[in-house]
Write a structure and sequence with these properties.
Its main location: membrane. Pfam families: MFS_1. It comes from Neotabrizicola shimadae. InterPro entries: MFS, MFS_dom, MFS_Efflux_Transporters, MFS_trans_sf. It is found in: Cell membrane. The chain has two domains: 193 residues, Growth Hormone, Chain: A (Up-down Bundle); 174 residues, MFS general substrate transporter like domains (Growth Hormone, Chain: A), CATH 1.20.1250. It has 17 helices and no strands. The radius of gyration is 20 Å and the shape is globular. The termini are far apart. The protein is mostly helical.
Length: 386
């Protein structure tokens, strides 16, 4: 029996797109943490090679992102998101069948195509095409659902790995794309259909100021750098501050709930304010957390994780809502792709850069990400609502 949208289309669209996004993130961004070691061992390689292949995937996603966004602007998100599911499935199947490291790298490059066409930027552009400047609520809604991607993805990948093996786990994720995510994305409105009446700012207007675009691109790159650096090295950083291994792991587990809690706050109280206000508040959270960690050491591990996670949760939403609020819905998809391209490239290098800093400076490496956070906050204060 085919699913049909109920009368409350907004809740329906947010739900199906949020679930599809959860699958997209869980089967790409979050599988190296579980599958990289056995994947590399089967070829006699170090896991570093698999993470290097994943970095290539992020570079590919940065390259394809502007094209995917422009395509969504023209024809709507349904077709692009459905195509991304087919590409994800093809890339995962190639990983599963890879007879050599060269084919493994090719599989990750194909997954990178899917990431550029099927993750948050594409979903945000799809919602902007449907709702115009009223898309802030739906954007927050899908990030609330997809915020559980690691909560769902890591255990499911681990279960498939333990039961069948890493190749079969990749096949499992490919089948989930084909038989769950693809039908869900097929439920989105066809073409460039709008659910709400066009807003005055959705018509073509003068191009945004170049300085504002560069400032926002810098903010996205800086915050993605910090987010990825912490995702890769948080336990080691907290141990360098004096926390035990158990405390470092427990503190790291708080980041996900902190992100979701902050997104609930954005969905409720903070939605009354301009997205710039919540973005400025969120960008300042990591530098504040860094100061607490340096001053108080290991006992501040939990506070650091909560502050960093909360800021990161709101900034993920800001990546979709800020360009919409500042520049309008016309050309939103292509613009979002270009704004996020530097972020994707820097994200690919973040684990290596911060890892080298942590190995050289220990806890003092946190000043690197703290300064990046301060600069991002300053850039947000230079931006104006109009």
């Amino acid at each position: 029996m085919l699913l049909t949208p109920p009368p409350d289309r907004r809740s329906w669209i947010v739900t199906v797109l949020g679930i599809a996004q959860t699958i997209g993130w869980a089967s790409s961004y979050y599988i190296p943490a579980v599958l990289a070691a056995p994947m590399a061992a089967s070829f006699g390689l170090s896991p570093v090679w698999v993470f290097g292949a994943f970095s290539i995937a992020m570079v590919v996603s940065a390259t394809i992102g502007p094209w995917a966004g422009a395509r969504i602007d023209r024809i709507g998100g349904r077709g692009v998101l459905m195509l991304s599911n087919l590409i994800f499935a093809a890339g995962l199947a190639l990983l599963a069948a890879a007879p050599s490291p060269v084919v493994l790298f090719a599989g990750w490059a194909i997954i990178g195509l899917g990431m550029g066409m099927g993750l948050y930027e594409a979903a945000f552009a799809s919602l902007a095409g449907i709702y115009g400047k009223e898309a802030r609520g739906p954007i927050t809604g899908i990030t609330l659902i997809a915020g559980f991607a690691s909560t769902v993805g890591w255990p499911l990948s681990g279960l498939m790995l333990a039961s069948w093996g890493w190749r079969e786990a990749c096949i499992g994720w490919a089948l989930i794309h084909l038989f769950l995510a693809l039908p869900l994305n097929a439920l989105l409105p066809r073409g460039a259909q709008k659910i709400t009446a066009p807003m005055p700012d959705t018509v073509e207007g003068p191009p945004p100021p170049r300085l504002a675009l560069w400032l926002l691109a810098f903010v996205f790159a800086a915050t993605w750098f910090n987010s990825t650096a912490m995702a890769a090295h948080l336990p080691g950083l907290l141990q360098a501050a004096g926390a035990s291994t158990a405390v470092a792991i427990a503190a790291g587990a708080l980041i996900g709930p902190a992100q979701v809690a902050a997104r609930i706050l954005e969905f409720g109280l903070l939605r009354r304010f301009h997205p710039l206000a919540s973005a400025r508040l969120a960008a300042s959270a990591h530098p504040l957390a860094a100061v607490c960690l340096v001053v108080f050491g290991g006992p501040a591990a939990y506070g650091f994780a909560i502050l960093h996670g909360a800021g990161n949760g709101i900034l993920t939403i800001a990546k979709g809502t800020l360009p919409l609020a500042l520049f309008g819905a016309a050309g939103y998809g292509a613009r979002l792709g270009w704004l996020n391209a530097p972020a994707r490239l820097l994200q690919a290098a973040a684990p290596l850069i911060f890892g080298a800093a942590l190995a050289t400076w220990g806890l003092q490496a946190i000043w690197l990400t703290a300064m990046v956070g301060v600069l991002a906050t300053a850039a947000l204060f230079l931006l104006r609502r109009n």
